[in-house]
Amino acid sequence: MMDxxxxxxxxxxxxxxxxxxxxxxxxxxxxxxxxxxxxxxQTIRSTMLILSGLVKLYREDDEGKEFFIYQLDAGQxxxxxxxxxxxxxxxxxxxxxxxxxxxxxxxxxxxxxxMSKYKSWYQFVITSYRNRFEELLKTIxxxxxTGMDERLAYYLEKQVEKLGNNLKITHQEIxxxxxxxxxxxxxxxxxxxxxxxLTIHRNSIGWIKKD
Length: 211
What we know:
Arc Repressor Mutant, subunit A, elongated, 47% helix, alpha+beta, Jelly Rolls, three-stranded antiparallel sheet
């Protein structure tokens, strides 16, 4: 059972009654790293609030190739699931747990009620939309206006912010996230290593670069 004080730390500035309803109406789920939380085409009847761990969101093409959009960590909500649930639409994204994670699932019926009942929930939803949209714009900007070397550096820096300087990740996983090839990513990583930005290990990368 999630402690209400922990919930307040993760999602501050909500009304007292809303915290109680979140715990009463929501369902807490424990998921393992690599587990899929949301599939493309899945009918969404609830939204996800992240209580612990990291969750990555992807777009998926017709061939099943995945393209990284952004990730969510503790204290954040999946705004795309909010939109889809509110409009009774199916998901157009794939969500996977990057690490072991805990999520709070809020059914659609209560989301709708809280929008009018609690001003703080309305503000939380709007803020979540805005924050995720800004992250999406950064991803689009990286694709449209920067080369793969800059995209890779930005990607690694964002991963380090969440996971620490020793990244347990393969070249193929990075290539999948950036919609590139393993060969291109390996070549760019070797160039970064030569510059002293990072060290390459088997299935991990040690980040050194500092601004």
